[in-house]
Design a protein that fits this description.
By secondary structure, the chain is an alpha/beta fold. The protein has helices at about 10-15, 20-25, 35-50, 55-60, 75-90, 110-120, 135-145, 170-185, 200-220, 235-245, 260-270, 285-295, 305-320, 330; strands spanning about 65-70, 100-105, 125-130, 150-155, 165, 190-195, 220-225, 250-255, 280, 300, 335-340.
Length: about 350
């Protein structure tokens, strides 16, 4: 029996001794096909192992699905691959009428995203995917959900909302991985700190929490020093780390909870010429991968923004059609560890 994925209308037409158009009409139970021909086509399809794709068929029946993807503009190097993932998913579903509007706001701050969501005409869409900027966004998600529109979150979650499901990484686990990596580089001893955007969005606070829990529970010979909240501002992250290292010269390692704090931390270490500080950063870009190769950073945690964008579109479109929560394997994006030896694979 041929592979189900390779069973085409042409193959069925050849076996049934008829045209591709007749096969298409017969499989869709449309008029204009003789009963005997229809039966011959259905027998040929069964023999070849043909299974209709309910996703494709449902999309054709609906005519079109218009989705809104709501996410920030900055930082551009992080969101560029996510945009590519979104656009690739739309291209793969374009034959079925799936369209996406990109609703952008300057950076990941709650007031900016709230304004963008408040302006959104939800009657224009069949589903919305939101890159949540913080706990206040739950109010907007609940408002949209109450109006009957399915909402999902991607990249950053809003667990206290009525969103249907989340596409992204396990942030708590990522924080634990960061702690374990930093401890391995330092031999399980020494003073360390965390730099990032802890207040604005849930994943950053979860990474912070996972890191702190692991240090306290697993590495008793490591001391954790607090560092200032840097929001999503690279310059503030850089200055915060410079200030801490000046006041606490015993700090030997830094964990960053996101892209902006990683860029800021690398800038700080370059200004201080401190390659002796172990830095575990987050996300990738040409700038961060260069810093990794040059020794300003020891490892990066990669959350695959391309796959997050792609999976958000695909699974939301499917959810609009059938209301089912997708297979966890499609929406749980694994966090990878990037080191100088495999950095070229993440360009």
């Amino acid at each position: 029996m041929p592979d189900i994925k390779r069973v085409t209308l042409k193959l069925i037409a050849q076996r049934a001794g008829t045209s591709i158009g007749t096969v298409d009409r017969a499989l869709k139970d449309r008029e204009g096909v003789r009963r005997t021909t229809r039966e011959r086509v259905l027998i040929a399809a069964r023999e070849l192992g043909y299974t209709p794709n309910p996703f494709s068929n449902a999309l054709r029946r609906m005519g079109s699905i218009r989705l809104a993807m709501v996410y920030p503009v900055q930082p551009i190097p992080f969101y560029a691959p996510m945009i590519t993932g979104i656009n690739d998913a739309v291209a793969d579903l374009s034959d079925f009428g799936v369209e996406v509007d990109h609703i952008r706001y300057a950076m990941q701050k709650q007031d900016l995203e709230e304004e963008a969501l408040a302006r959104l005409n939800i009657d224009d869409y069949q589903g919305i995917a939101i890159n949540s900027a913080g706990p206040r966004i739950a109010r907007q998600i609940n408002r949209i959900s109450e109006a009957g529109l399915p909402v999902i979150t991607f990249n950053t979650d809003a667990v206290n909302s009525t969103r249907r499901f989340f596409v992204g990484n396990d942030s708590l686990q990522s924080g634990r991985v960061g702690a374990a990596l930093l401890a391995r580089f330092l031999g399980g001893e020494g003073a360390v700190t965390v730099l990032g955007n802890f207040v604005q969005a849930m994943p950053f606070s979860e990474r912070f929490g996972g890191f702190c829990e692991t240090i306290h529970e697993t590495f008793p010979n490591m001391t954790l020093y607090p560092c200032a909240e840097c929001y999503a501002e690279q310059q503030l992250a850089s200055q915060s780390l410079i200030t801490l290292l000046s006041g606490v010269p015993s700090v030997r390692g830094v964990f960053c909870t996101g892209y902006t704090s990683t860029v800021g931390a690398i800038s700080a270490l370059k200004q201080l010429n401190r390659k002796d500080i172990v830095l575990i950063g987050y996300d990738t870009s040409d700038e961060l991968l260069s810093a990794l190769r040059e020794g300003w950073c020891d490892a990066l945690l990669y959350q695959d923004p391309y796959q997050q964008g792609y999976a958000a579109v695909q699974t939301l479109a499917q959810h609009v059609l059938d209301g089912r929560i997708p297979d966890p394997r499609k929406i749980n994006i694994l966090t990878n560890i990037v080191i100088p030896q495999n950095a070229d694979s993440y360009r």
